[in-house]
Every structure is written in structure tokens, then in C-alpha cells.
Amino acid sequence: MRYFPLLGAVIFLAACQPEETVEMRAAQRAEEAMAKVTDCAAVQCTTLDLDGAGIPDYTVLNDMSHLKVLMISYTDFNDLNDIAGLTGLEELHIGSTSVSDLTPLSNFANLRVLHVQNTDFTDIGGLTSLRNLEELAIGQAHFADISFVQSLPKLKTLDISNADLPGLGALRGHPALETLELGYAPISDLTPLLEVRNLKRLGISDPGGDEALAAQHELLRGRGVVIAYEPVIVLC
Predict the structure, then answer these.
(1) Which domains does the chain have, with CATH numbers?
(2) Which of 29, 32, 124, 213 is a good FRET partner for 151, with 20 to 30 A between their CA atoms?
(3) CA pair distance 191, 210, nearest whole angstrom
(4) pTM score, two decimals?
């Protein structure tokens, strides 16, 4: 039996198929995302995961008052006003998007979880209205002041990894904070954390040869805080 002609035909047909372009893949992802939206609306789902798969018009989500969790990170989403009608949201993920204005966060007073890391916002004042917030990921962004944390009395988890901060003084005496992720943030004074009575875990880079910083780590360990070191990344 000879299969060579058939094999050649298959190869020829494959070669004739149009090459998938970036635009085609984006259109396919958008179509799949809209299918998720339609299905969610049909069953009145409470969680909608569109991470990495944006939709052409985010305002259509305003009709989905049943949503409690919305994930639209890694998309072209850029304006919180587009979803201002989702006042019942308890969890919102908008990390790695083009959002630059956090003021509309005041529409989401019920938020308990907010991920807004790696975005280009310029004003973090909108965070102060989220008094029910328990988890906030805001690292890898451009801000130099974390005094807003004083307005978040229920905050248990704070991720400010790799942020260029002048210090942690604003965290001193926080009543609820349990987990703090600093990553490679250039912080040399951890003593304010000795006054965060509920702190249980600190994610931070290894102090290396910095004896003063290592001593602060030991002080925190003495208070029962677990110190988790970030892995060292070797660049070749």
C-alpha cells in the first residue's frame, strides 16, 4: 500500500490554510469572551473570568447586577466608569490593564478584594472609600504614599511588591493587617511592622549582606512573623 500521494495531499492542504494572524487570534479571544458573558447572563452567574480576553464594549456588563466577582486583568480595559453600575461587586481584578483613574472605585463600596497591580494610575485617593476591603494587590505601580491604608481598617492582605516607597510608617498600628508582600521593594526600615500586632507573614527579598536589615528580620521572627524570601532571579 502506498500512502505518499495522500500524505502529499494533506501537506498541500495544510500549506494552503491561511496563516493565523495576531488580529485573528484577538478576534477569536473576543468572541470566546463574549460567549462567556452571554452564558453568565443566562444563568445569573456570580463570577465572570475574562482575564486575558477582553471584550469590545465593557459597558454591557452593567446589566449583570448579579455579579460578585469580575476578573478582567491583562485586557484592554481602561475606564472604571464603564462598569460603574456593578455596585454589588465584592471582588475586582483589573491588574495589567490601562486604567489610570481610580476615582470611580467609590462606586464599589462592597469590595473585599481588589487587584490593581501593574497599572498606570496617578492618584490613589479612590482607594480610601473602600472601607470593607480585606485584600489589596497594588504592586508594580507608580505611587510613593501608602497612607491610604489607614482608611482601610479591615485590610488583611496587602501586596505592594516592587513599589518604590519611602517607608512603611503608614502601616504602624494597623488593626487588621496579617500578610504583607514587599517583593523587591527597596525598603530598609522594617521597624514600623513591629507595631502591626496581627502581622503573620512578610514576603520580602533576602537581605543578603545587610546585617542591619537581617537583624530586623530576626526581630520580626521573634514576634512570630513568617519571613518568606523572594527567589533570586539570575539574568544571563
Answers:
(1) 134-235 (3.80.10.10)
(2) 213
(3) 15
(4) 0.86
